[in-house]
Specification:
Blueprint (H helix, E strand, L loop, with lengths): L14 E7 L1 E2 L11 E2 L5 H18 L8 E8 L7 H14 L7 E6 L6 H9 L4 E7 L3 H6 L6 H14 L3 E8 L6 H14 L3 E6 L7 H7 L8 H17 L3 E4 L2 E3 L6 H7 L4 E4 L4 E4 L2 E5 L3 H9 L5 E6 L2 H13 L5 E2 H8 L3 H14 L3 E4 L2 E4 L1 H5 L1 H6 L4
Parallel strand pairs: 1-4, 1-11, 2-3, 4-5, 5-6, 6-7, 7-8
Antiparallel strand pairs: 8-10, 9-10, 12-13, 13-14, 15-17, 16-17
Length: 392
């Protein structure tokens, strides 16, 4: 894995592909993604539909099928709910219709305790280079509250198994600001992941999404979330612990200790094109965002009729593209570059956002390095406020 990396924010001539597998053994109490439990009877039909969508996209947008694919990402849901044969069928179809000889990263999301050593070896044989485990916490009571399908021991064993099989890039996700969580829990979670030997850690503050079971429990008063001052203390503790263990933050929520960046996710923050296939998938191609039908059966039925499953299509205006480019770039350690912005839009960041930038610098939320602006530590903590200054 490369230890240094210089991003290119200009429009690239390579492509990322996201493949959405919307199935889970258990639906987590905080999740509002397009993911569903108890749909095993539809797995085969869904895989056939997903493959049909890949083919239909290539035929409908033939120019997209000539752009070399650089990254492939299986997300969900839980992609490893599918069999190795089903995953191979999807990859074979992708490789048939898109040029994938130059893929540098093939990522797979997985849940602890749901796959064994043989399955991991099978993933390696399929070309998977990166595993991302949804750990969330090593507190068994909180895992039960979140309706996770594993306990702390299973999470530790899953990461140990992945490393023993030979995966060089293994990531673990954590959530903070959970009900009843303490600073000591944060330290324990970070230390456990570090000691296990992961090369990448993603940490997210809990987002209460309306309609989820966790949201209903909090609304009813059955659960209490930590107050804002404790959330900030957890955030600071998390940064201190990760830094002390040699992890750099390269994006607001993502950290690595050896340059094991998530190259596919970097595409999002660098405002590059990516295709997305599957129920509920979101794509960004030629300045158009497209959202797929989120429900499994209607998605399958549309593909059986040889219809693309897109239900929302939005052409991104230049004004919107300017806003998106700025706040997405600021999420990363590389920041917002005047040069990259000018190459993309043939205009100056300062001409548009000069007053806002000066104010954010005065507030201690941005720093400037030659022609590049980056978030300070406080800026990252108050990222939503910073980003809002670039939204007209």
């Amino acid at each position: 894995m490369e230890l240094t990396f210089t991003p290119s924010f200009a429009t690239s001539r390579d492509m990322g592909v996201y493949l959405h597998i919307p199935f889970c053994r258990k639906k987590c109490s905080y999740c509002d993604f397009a993911s569903y439990e108890g749909m095993e009877a539809y797995y085969d039909d869904y895989v056939d539909a997903l493959c049909a969508e890949i083919k239909l996209w290539a035929e409908t947008y033939p120019k997209s099928a000539k752009i070399p694919v650089n990254t492939v990402y299986f997300g969900g849901g839980t992609p490893t709910q599918l069999s190795l044969i089903q995953l191979e069928q999807i990859l074979d179809t992708l490789y048939t219709y898109y040029p994938c000889d130059s893929v540098r990263e093939l990522s797979m999301e997985a849940n602890s305790g749901e796959i064994d050593i043989d399955y991991l070896k099978g993933l390696k044989s399929l070309g998977v280079t990166r595993l991302s485990y949804g750990v969330q916490t090593f507190d068994d009571d909180l895992l039960q509250l979140l309706r996770r399908g594993h306990n702390a021991h299973m999470a530790k064993q899953a990461i140990t198994d992945a490393l023993s099989v030979g995966f060089q890039s293994v990531s673990g996700d954590l959530i903070y600001a959970l009900p009843g969580q303490s600073l000591n829990d944060i330290k324990t979670n970070v230390k456990t992941l570090v000691d296990l030997g992961v090369s990448h850690i993603s940490i997210y503050g809990l987002q209460l999404e309306e309609g989820t079971n966790l949201h209903k429990q909090v609304e009813l008063g059955d659960l209490d979330l930590p107050p804002d001052d404790e959330n900030e203390a957890m955030y600071d503790c998390m940064l201190d612990e990760l830094s002390a263990n040699g992890f750099e933050r390269y994006e607001i929520s993502n950290f690595t200790n050896n340059g094991s960046y998530s190259y596919h996710n970097l595409r999002y923050w660098q405002y590059k094109d990516y295709l997305a296939f599957g129920a509920g998938a979101y794509s960004f191609y030629n300045n158009v965002r497209r959202n797929n039908e989120p429900y499994v059966v209607p998605y399958i039925n549309r593909l059986r009729q040889e219809l693309l499953p897109v239900v929302v299509e939005e052409k991104i205006s230049e004004d919107r593209a300017v806003e998106d480019f700025c706040f997405l770039a600021l999420r990363t350690k590389w920041g917002l570059s005047e040069k990259a912005f000018n190459e993309r839009f043939n205009m100056s960041v300062r001409d548009i956002f000069g007053d806002e930038i000066d104010l954010l610098i005065k507030q201690g939320l941005l720093i400037v390095d030659v022609d590049t602006w980056r978030l300070t530590r406080d800026g990252a903590k108050h990222g939503n406020y910073v980003f809002s200054q670039f939204i007209r």
